[in-house]
């Protein structure tokens, strides 16, 4: 009989929940990958067995996101945080300015790195009121000669998410999609570059996915050191040096799982249903729970809310822990609670959270 696995309700913001089935597949293949008599971790990155995994991950990502011709999918290391520096190193030419839309802590961090490397400006900011909203397209202030416009599609800490993306014409649009890539369909062709650390919707931490349009590669600064140039990865199919092979293998399993679930449209519907379970509990609470994000820009991935005071929040988090929930404490810059309901978080976990919220409210109102 199969051993029952004890799994908690995992609402961590990242690294975050992975589907049980892919963990089990990785476990089953750990000692002998595909009849090779080796673990995927022990196989040369120059071997056919590994290359098939690597290329499968790229193909699946292209298929699932509908990436048009003229883009490359790259695997890098250094997390999304290294992208904060690589983007300006490669694309912020002297005499040009890059625009940043400030929608949270990660946008601030991206801006701070670019500021060290060239001229930057704030194209719009939602800082006032502690990042509860997303600037409207009309608020974005940048000229046609802007080097690029940088946005953060989902603000992991504050729980806001862009509902539609700006049309930037000839100005390259660059997005940090670390916390919502693969959560819903979107038009990749609007973007010149997209980057995402893997540890939310793509797999375990340790690999960063970059999707880059070819014309941007041609414009890149050629003086940047080899490992910090996108061109290095694009030229050699991300095999210039040893890539994080196990992580890319896990990404390939995760992408196959996304496809099995019905792709992005199906996952989007499920993510909407899951998030609605928790947002409804907030909205029906008569102010017992107060959402941080403005309702029109609520994130489907990170649901942020407060209770009346820190003592009550602590009591709620203690009750959650007792009931088998993890990762519900909010980030210190917002406080309160945050439920991260990425693709792999089951509907049942969101339902259980909703019930916990109702019960806790009844007992503590
Ligand atoms: C939107 C966003 N950008 C960037 C980062 C930083 O990613 P990393 O730790 O991979 O550098 C995070 C991490 O949570 C994030 O949520």
* Strand order within the widest beta sheet: 2-10-9-8-5-3-4
Indicate the percent of residues in helices.
25-40%
CATH architecture classification name of the largest domain: 3-Layer(aba) Sandwich
- Bound ligands, each once: pyridoxal-5'-phosphate
What is the top-level CATH class of the largest domain?
Answer: Alpha Beta
SS class? alpha/beta
Q: Which percent band covers the strand fraction?
A: 15-25%
- The CATH homologous superfamily of the largest domain is called Type I PLP-dependent aspartate aminotransferase-like (Major domain)
Query: Could you tell me the radius of gyration in angstroms?
Result: 21 Å
**Overall geometric form:** globular
What separation lies between the terminal Cα atoms? 45 Å
The biggest beta sheet, please? 7 strands, mixed
| Oligomeric category | single chain
Number of beta strands: 14
How would you spell out the order of helices and strands?
EHHEHEHEEEEEEEHHHHEEHEEH
How many DSSP H or I helices?
10
Q: What would a concise description of this structure say?
A:
This protein has 365 residues and is an alpha/beta fold.
Write the layout of secondary structure elements.
Elements: E1 9-10, H1 20-29, H2 48-65, E2 71-76, H3 79-91, E3 97-102, H4 105-117, E4 119-125, E5 149-152, E6 154-155, E7 160-161, E8 173-176, E9 193-197, E10 208-213, H5 214-219, H6 230-235, H7 245-260, H8 263-283, E11 290-291, E12 302-306, H9 310-322, E13 325-326, E14 337-340, H10 347-364
Parallel strand pairs: 1-13, 3-4, 3-5, 5-8, 8-9
Antiparallel strand pairs: 2-10, 6-7, 9-10, 11-12, 12-14
The structure holds pyridoxal-5'-phosphate.
């Amino acid at each position: 009989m199969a051993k029952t696995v004890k799994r908690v309700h995992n609402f961590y913001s990242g690294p975050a929940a992975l589907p049980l089935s892919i963990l089990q597949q990785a476990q089953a293949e750990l000692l002998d990958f595909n009849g090779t008599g080796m673990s995927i971790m022990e196989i040369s990155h120059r071997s056919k067995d590994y290359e098939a995994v690597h290329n499968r991950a790229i193909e699946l990502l292209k298929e699932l996101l509908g990436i048009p011709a003229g883009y490359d999918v790259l695997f890098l290391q250094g997390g999304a945080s290294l992208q904060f520096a690589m983007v300006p190193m490669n694309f912020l030419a002297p005499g040009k300015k890059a625009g940043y839309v400030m929608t949270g802590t990660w946008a601030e961090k991206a801006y701070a790195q670019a500021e060290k490397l060239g001229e930057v400006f704030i194209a719009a900011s939602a800082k006032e009121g502690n990042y509860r909203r997303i600037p409207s397209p009309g608020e974005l202030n940048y000229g046609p000669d802007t080097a690029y416009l940088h946005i953060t599609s989902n603000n992991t800490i504050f729980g806001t998410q862009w509902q539609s993306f700006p049309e930037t014409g000839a100005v390259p649009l660059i997005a940090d999609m670390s916390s919502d890539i693969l959560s819903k369909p979107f038009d990749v062709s609007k973007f010149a570059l997209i980057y995402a650390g893997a540890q939310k919707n793509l797999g375990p931490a340790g690999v960063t996915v970059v999707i880059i349009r070819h014309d941007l590669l041609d414009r890149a600064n050629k003086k940047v050191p080899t490992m910090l140039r996108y061109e290095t990865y694009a030229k050699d199919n991300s095999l210039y040096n040893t890539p994080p092979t196990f992580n890319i293998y896990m990404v390939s399993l995760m992408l196959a799982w996304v496809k099995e679930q019905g792709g992005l449209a199906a996952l989007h519907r499920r993510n909407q249903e899951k998030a609605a379970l928790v947002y409804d509990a907030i909205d029906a609470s008569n102010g017992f729970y107060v959402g941080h994000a403005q309702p029109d820009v609520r994130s489907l991935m990170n649901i942020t809310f407060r209770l009346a005071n820190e003592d009550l929040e602590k009591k709620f988090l203690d009750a959650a822990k007792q009931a088998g929930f993890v990762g519900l404490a909010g980030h210190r810059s917002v406080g309160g609670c945050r439920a991260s309901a990425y693709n792999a978080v089951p509907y049942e976990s969101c339902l259980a959270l909703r019930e916990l919220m109702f019960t806790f409210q009844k007992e503590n109102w």
